[in-house]
What does this fold into?
Amino acid sequence: MARDQVPKSVKREVRKLIKALESEKIRVERVILFGSYAKGEQRRYSDIDVAIVSPDFTGIRFEDNRRLLKVKLLLNSRIETHPYTPEDFADSPFVRDEILEYGIEIV
It folds into this structure.
């Protein structure tokens, strides 16, 4: 699916997420939509999978998800965040096989 085919409501939610991250002093290098929405296979209750690359993440999944929890609670959104440090993003087979192959870069 091309970026211009992503539903406007999803783009809006991702933009709100980016603003909320920035307000929490989380620098955003890349935001990539992946999963069912990127593939055009979403269903009515599908979550919105988003990879977030930031040098402010630790690379410790629990810590990074805890930091994102506040942002997610403020948004009350269907977005499922997947935090990566730039190094982890470059080295991850999941990134290579799923996110980069099917993902749609938002930032």
In short: The helical segments are 8-23, 36-39, 61-75, 86-91, 93-102. The CA atoms of residues 9 and 76 lie 14 Å apart.
